[in-house]
Amino acid sequence: MHARAARLTYIAIATLFAATLVRAQQPPQATPPPPALTAAEARELLFSNAEPNSAADACARLPERDASVDCLLSERYASDPAAQRIALSLRRELNVVAGIETPHTMNGGFRGMIRIVGEAPVGPHRRHLEWVSRALRDFDQFAQGLARHAQRPLAYHPLPTALRFLRSVNRTTPSAYARDWRVSYNVSGSLLRNEASVRETLFHEIFHLNDEVHTSGTQRRWSARVLTRISDRILRRCGTNRRCLAPYAPSTTTVRGGTYYAFQPGNGGSVPEYAAELALRYYQEQRAALRHERFDRGAFKCGPPENAEAWRLLVDEFFGGADLISACP
Ligand SMILES: [Zn+2]
Q1: 209 CA to middle of ligand 1, Å?
Q2: Cα separation of 308 and 140, whole Å?
Q3: d(CA 184, CA 163)
Q4: How far apart are CA 126 and CA 142, in angstroms?
Q5: 272 CA to middle of ligand 1, Å?
Q6: Ligand 1: distance of its center to the CA of 64 in Å?
């Protein structure tokens, strides 16, 4: 569905260069880096579900933001020192705050209505915090590696500012969703069963966050503006037929009783999902190339012409033209 001290100089450089590029009338325009959470926002994110807490109030009153947020994290994760260490290092190294979701009922489109409750990633759920932590470090390194191969600075922010851990009552969906630079993560999520699938699900969500800020004037998110034409062409040809859609599907994820996630109807418009799955495929292929690993499913861009066109549009808009995959034969 839809979704840094050490926050890397490349973002600052990207913003700087992008200003120059815009003046020169060249696409794409970069977006400013997302603002870090304030101490008040961190307090809300960490304690909105908990009983009134005088220690948390004292943390929130500390004058210095980082010290205040670290104090809040220490307090919230006090019951699980191992989780506490991970949460603190995420804040200190990547400036990401690992918080708790607010209870609510969501309209999950084809999934129906879903009750969501907050669930701290501690005790039996701590492994999720470990996987997320490794995933975010991977994205950070990925963006740095990619930047070395890009023709211009990336217009892509690889990290959210905050996480919201949750559980869906009697359900295993949605695995994750994202908005306003926050990623919500379901400890019962069907897609979140190992480190690799957590990494891939989070990359998909973080792409949504980038997509939603790549607006143009008053125009909608990038995917809707730019990829609808291609996605519509594929849907006209294939409908929901899996065999027909297979060569166009950037990932193997499918909906039970439905079709490929990238083309599933009733999902709030499938174009953002096509875009996020395309971005995930880009990540998988480029990551393998950067690590000198083999990618088994071949080069997406060397499939049907629609794939090559969507790939090129994505690479140019978000990733500074960086493409480590050889030209198609
Ligand atoms: Zn999505």
Answers
A1: 10
A2: 26
A3: 6
A4: 24
A5: 7
A6: 36
Is the C-alpha dihedral spanning 10, 13, 19, 22 positive or negative?
negative
CA angle at 258 for the pair 209 and 169, rounded to the nearest 5°? 65
Q: Which two tokens stand for residue 15?
A: 């913003």
Q: Which two tokens stand for residue 225?
A: 């503006």
Ligand 1 (ion): residues with CB under 5 Å are 1, 273, 276
Percent of the chain surpassing pLDDT 90:
79
Residue count (the chain):
329
How much distance in Å is there from the Cα of 206 to the middle of ligand 1?
A: 9
| Ligand 1 center to 205 CA (angstroms) | 6
Strand 97-100 to 162-168 pairing: parallel
Report whether the peptide linkage leading into residue 28 is cis, meaning its omega lies within 30 degrees of zero.
yes
* Cis amide bond preceding 160, omega within 30: no
State the pLDDT confidence band at 112, using cuts at 50, 70 and 90.
confident
Q: Which residues contact 148 (CB under 8 A, 6 or more apart)?
A: none
Dist. CA 283 → ligand 1 center (Å): 15
Gap from CA of 173 to ligand 1 centroid (Å): 12
What's the gap in Å between 57 CA and the centre of ligand 1?
36
pLDDT digits (tens, 9 = 90+) for 216-258: 877 789 999 999 999 999 999 999 999 999 999 999 988 888 8
CA of 207 to the centre of ligand 1 (A): 9
Contact predicate 190/168, CB 8 Å: no
Centre of ligand 1 from the C-alpha of residue 219, in Å? 20
Cα dihedral angle (38, 14, 139, 316), rounded to 10 degrees?
Answer: 130
DSSP run (H or E) holding 86: helix 81-89
pLDDT tens, residue by residue, 36-46: 999 999 999 99
pTM of the full structure: 0.89
